[in-house]
What does this fold into?
Amino acid sequence: MKSFPFLMLEGKKYPTVIIGEDLFTGWFTKCPLFFSEEERSGRYKETITKAYDLGVRGFSISPHPTLVSVLREFKIEHPDIVCIANPHFGSHYFVGEESLWSLENREKLEKSNFSDKEIRQFRLDEKEYCEKLVQFKEFCDFCLVGNIGKNALMLLGREDIIVREIVIAWEKGLVPLSIAETGSLVLPDLERLKVGGHWVLMSPLLDSSVIQLKKELGKCKKPVT
It folds into this structure.
């Protein structure tokens, strides 16, 4: 089947249709609580193969070893696909020595319940982040940046962490893409950053004003997915 078209973004082919994760390619619905890793691998490959047969050439991938392995091999078999790394889950974000990905800290991020002192202690573990990017660089052209807690880093005033992520991503040869889960609340600020484009969630559950979001989208000079 003929594939959906591509755009050129920062000198790289960028897919106009991208299959997401979770309920699609399988973070949680294919988790080992229900399936062995072998079964998970098979179900994941079945999903991305079906998507490919229907013309999809864009695939997002999070740092789960089984899924990474399958998509890396799929890229070898189908070099026309484009992969977007979503390297964050469980990785490289800390408050002091404690991971921001702990259940307690994720709940605090969602509710903005960190003190000013704790927010100042947020940090990017650059060694861990670089290791993730090197892993994904093997088969990905793009990567998301700042993807934790519904734009918590931006909303809590730690844009500097995302800026550093962006710099490192460019250095490693990946085109960084911002993610705007809270829409108009952060999109104007994200537009100022040196990213190739944005991923924007359009949902009244996350953005109090869909009308305002549409206005902000109209101002964007960078490509929006």
Observations:
- The longest helix spans residues 37-53.
- The radius of gyration is 17 Å.
- Residues 49 and 74 are 8 Å apart (CA to CA).
